[in-house]
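Tutorial, part two.
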Amino acid sequence: MIVNKLRLGNFDIYGLTDGYFYLDGGAMFGVVPKTLWEKKCPADAKNRIKLALNSVLIKTPQGLVLVETGIGTKLDQKFRGIYCVEKEPGLLSSLSRWGFSPEDIDFVINTHLHFDHCGGNTFRNEKGEAVPTFPRARYIIQRGEWEWAKQPNEREKSSYLEENFLPLEDYGLVDLVDGDSRVTEGVEVVLSPGHTHRHQSVKVFSQGKTLFYLGDLVPTSAHIGLSYIMSYDLFPLETLESKKKFYEQAKEEDWVLAFVHDPLYYFGKVGKKNNKYEFLPLLSGDGSPGGPPR
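Running the prediction step on this input gives:
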């Protein structure tokens, strides 16, 4: 059974989904041969693999923190077709199932500003204008990522869609941070460079327990291996160093890890066997690992 809610000390952690989309499997696994990665992520006839659009909602005594907003609802039919987008149930419906509304959210954290991580930041109103989806929230974004997204190079231009983030500035909702920063009590953003230079992950801690939302540092549980690095990463050697750094701390301190694109698991842990890191799924809501490593 998929674990989609955790109790982390004094916090409740909810797994949400904005649906699914498909990307080329070779691009998702970089230099790793298909004969290895397809055992974990079978590809379709077009060599695409199914990826989730996972968010987490953190309920703390100080407020509600939403991490990532998925692909959103502003995509045209051509775009949806290219990425084979499946919008079920959708982020807002997923949020509603747990009893929350967009107006309840106090903070939104984007690990970076690629369209599949921040598309739900905004939606189109009746006038066709892109406006904030979470009207009360402060949107927490790395300053370097924000500046990069506003002037992307030719390689990245299609990944950064201004309608997903620039309208937030017009409404005065953006909080740009520089490096590791506190969001609210028990929630911090932590630089984890590699996918982009100022990519950030999210560290949540309460009563001696820690959850770490990896973002695109480790997009799925199948990417736990150190060499399993996406071709989309701008700085793959930085990704490698970031993985080593956080894995060791996660293993030693028994962190729960959260995955943004895994279609099977919201949460898991990292172990080490024969000097190789391995994924340990969670089978119960108390954060205990169980089942065979993947």
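The first strand starts at residue 5 and ends at 8. In part three we will examine how such features are distributed along the chain.
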